[in-house]
Design brief:
There is one protein chain. This protein has a five-stranded antiparallel sheet with strand order 1-2-3-9-6. A four-stranded mixed sheet has the order 12-19-18-15, with no helix packed on it. It has two domains: about 160 residues, Thiol:disulfide interchange protein DsbD, N-terminal domain (Immunoglobulin-like), CATH 2.60.40; about 100 residues, Sandwich (Immunoglobulin-like), CATH 2.60.40. With about 280 residues, it is mainly beta. It is built from three helices and 19 strands.
């Protein structure tokens, strides 16, 4: 009788076990970079799991200590927006960072900032130069972590994206982050009406044309300008309407057409659109 030694049997079982391990069982560390540490915070890159629709979906995950905040691309009255530098990446034609909708965060005194608490994931849509070659993300990330004091955080993160579609433990977190990114809407359906007699150029925005019930509105304007929005408090005003006020602008600025980007948020999502406002008509 032909006999097989015990070591050979164990080796065969080990090889068979390895063969049964699918790409879906890959270790979690294959889908995330090591944490980059900062004071009151840490950050890392995460991978949704291989190419999707001609590109990759990755993310920049930031975690914050309790009572610590970080900021949106337009931080409001205070704060510093994050910056994402993917220039040193390999085989990357484009890395588009998407911003989840922010919230208003009261800070010292009467200052209100726009940003995030606890944690945030910025989705990144990655396009490869050559889809048949490996993709490596190399990110220089700069952001602020603010508790009682604001501390700048500068970290370098590195992650090789998986070349085939596999199951990632971070796919759910990235899908959730994508749902928090405002959806683009048709600005033509949103009514803006100049408000006469105000100290600063102002408009009333009707949210009736929005696909969500808006509870807050964020206004972005060019450098050198500052604008904000507040719910309409006048008697008889429709629920959900806002007053948009251009409170700061250059002395010699031509206000005939001021470009603004508006983001409305609500319990059922967020939307965004561009608006060109006839500021001359709204001047007192």
């Amino acid at each position: 009788m032909h006999q097989i030694s015990l070591p050979k049997i164990l080796l065969s079982l080990a090889i068979a076990r390895i063969a049964l391990v699918s790409p879906a069982a890959m270790a979690a560390e294959n889908f995330a970079s090591p944490w980059g540490q900062g004071i009151h915070t840490r950050a890392r890159l995460i991978d949704a799991g291989g190419p999707q629709a001609g590109g990759y979906l990755a993310g920049v995950a930031i975690e914050l200590d309790p009572k610590t905040v970080t900021y949106w691309r337009s931080p409001g009255e205070a704060g510093v927006p994050p910056t994402f530098d993917f220039a040193a990446s390999q085989n990357v034609a484009k890395a588009e960072v998407l911003y989840p909708a922010p919230k208003r965060i009261p800070e010292a005194g009467a200052i209100v900032a726009f940003g995030y608490e606890d944690k945030v994931v910025f989705p990144v849509r990655v396009t490869a130069v050559d889809p048949n070659k490996p993709v490596e993300l190399n990110l220089k990330l700069n952001y602020a972590a603010c508790e009682k004091l604001c501390v700048p955080v500068n970290v370098e993160l590195h992650l090789a994206l998986q070349p085939v579609a596999v199951s990632s433990p971070y796919a759910t977190a990235l899908a959730s982050a994508l749902q928090q990114v405002p959806a683009a809407v048709d600005a033509g359906k949103i009514k803006l009406t100049p408000v006469p007699g105000t100290k600063k150029p102002s408009w009333q925005l009707s949210t009736a044309g929005l696909p969500i019930a808006a509870s807050d509105l964020f206004v972005e304007v060019p450098a050198g300008y500052f604008a904000d929005a507040a719910p309409v408090k006048a008697s008889g005003a429709a629920a959900g309407d806002f007053i948009v006020t251009l409170s700061e602008y250059p002395t010699k600025a031509d206000l005939h057409a001021v470009k603004m980007h508006l983001t409305a948020t609500g319990t059922k999502g967020a939307v965004e659109w561009d608006a060109s406002l006839d500021a001359d008509r709204a001047k007192p």
